[in-house]
Every structure is written in structure tokens, then in C-alpha cells.
């Protein structure tokens, strides 16, 4: 399903294949020989999304751009089933396995592997050919790649990266943080009310 969102429509190379149950919304460019499988959602929420050549987006993956953080995915990259990419730059020949989570402002250089259920956190940079093991967390720049049982180390690095400030422009110490966050984000997402289906 293709949608015009805030006046922008997807551009899909004629050699690309988009499954009929996938959703592609807004300022999205899908390059030659890409495959977007059933249930995938590619949504440009104020910023553009670009898929290079021969990118595979598997079932139920989510790719979301924001006005602050567009998405670029380089040639010959595979986005696994149920993976999530939000506002990140992904290089060429990258493997993002099933269930991976890539957060806003992340930069993943060429030929990296982010294995099953691993996380690349906010504003984190993976140098070329870095591997994030199954279930591990990559955080920061310079990056630390940590097992999930090192929660305190991960949390300390996350605090410095300031997720609510970077993504939502809100101070973590705001007493009603979630009230302000959901109201602000809800107003932004409400722009979908005027989307127009194109197919």
C-alpha cells in the first residue's frame, strides 16, 4: 500500500518489488532491485527515507524517519524480519538480523553485522565491519559493545546520549515527561489523518 503523506509520495524503481501488504508512506525512495516483503512498514515522518540498490526489507520490519533524522540504507543491505530502524544511516552490505533495533542518529558503516535481537542505540557509531553479537547492545561514540547483563554500564552510556532530549526535545527531569512526550508526538503523528492512498 502506497500513501502520500504531507504532500510527498513514494518513488519506487520499476525493478523493485513491494509486497501488497507492505506500507510505504511519504518521502520514500526505493532503489533498483529492492525487495520489500509482507507486513513491512516504511514511513517518512517528516524526513526522507532512501533505500539503495538491492536492499531487502523482510517481513514486519519497520523503517521510520523523522524531520531530525532521515534514513539512508546502502546497497545490498538486508533488514531482517521484525527489525526496527528509526532515523539512522546504514552503509552498504550491512546485515541487520531478525529483531534488531537501530535508534535515531545511529551510523552503521559498511559490512557491519547486527545479530539477532541486538541493539544499536541512539547516536551510536559502528565502524566498518563491526559485529554486535546476538542480544548485545552497542552504545555511544566511541562505541561500547556490551552484553545485556551489563545494564548499569549500558544505562550510564544511555543517559549521556539523552534519548528524550535528542528525539523529543524534552528534558528527562520534566515532572510530567510522558504527558508532554505523548501529547507532542501525538500531534505530529496526527498528520496521518490527511494521508491519501495511491494504489
TrEMBL record:
InterPro entries attached to this UniProt entry: Transf_Hexapept/Carb_Anhydrase, Trimer_LpxA-like_sf
Taxonomy, superkingdom: Bacteria
Record's protein name: Gamma carbonic anhydrase family protein
Organism the protein comes from: Microbacterium protaetiae
Membrane spanning stretches: none
Amino acid at each position: 500500500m502506497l500513501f502520500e503523506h504531507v504532500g510527498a509520495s513514494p518513488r519506487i524503481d520499476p525493478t523493485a518489488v513491494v509486497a501488497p501488504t507492505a506500507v510505504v508512506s511519504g518521502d520514500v525512495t526505493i532503489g533498483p532491485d529492492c525487495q520489500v516483503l509482507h507486513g513491512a512498514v516504511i514511513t517518512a515522518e517528516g524526513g526522507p527515507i532512501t533505500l539503495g540498490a538491492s536492499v531487502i526489507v523482510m517481513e514486519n520490519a519497520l523503517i521510520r524517519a523523522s524531520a531530525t533524522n532521515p534514513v539512508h540504507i546502502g546497497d545490498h543491505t538486508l533488514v531482517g524480519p521484525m527489525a526496527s530502524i528509526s532515523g539512522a544511516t546504514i552503509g552498504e552490505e550491512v546485515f541487520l538480523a531478525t529483531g534488531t533495533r537501530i535508534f535515531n542518529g545511529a551510523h552503521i558503516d559498511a559490512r557491519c553485522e547486527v545479530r539477532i535481537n541486538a541493539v544499536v542505540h541512539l547516536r551510536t557509531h559502528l565502524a566498518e565491519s563491526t559485529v554486535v553479537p546476538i542480544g548485545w547492545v552497542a552504545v555511544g561514540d566511541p562505541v561500547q559493545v556490551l552484553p545485556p547483563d551489563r545494564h548499569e554500564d549500558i544505562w550510564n552510556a544511555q543517559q549521556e546520549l539523552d534519548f528524550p532530549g535528542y528525539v523529543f526535545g524534552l528534558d528527562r527531569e520534566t515532572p510530567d515527561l510522558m504527558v508532554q512526550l505523548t501529547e507532542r508526538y501525538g500531534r505530529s503523528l496526527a498528520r496521518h489523518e490527511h494521508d491519501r492512498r495511491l494504489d
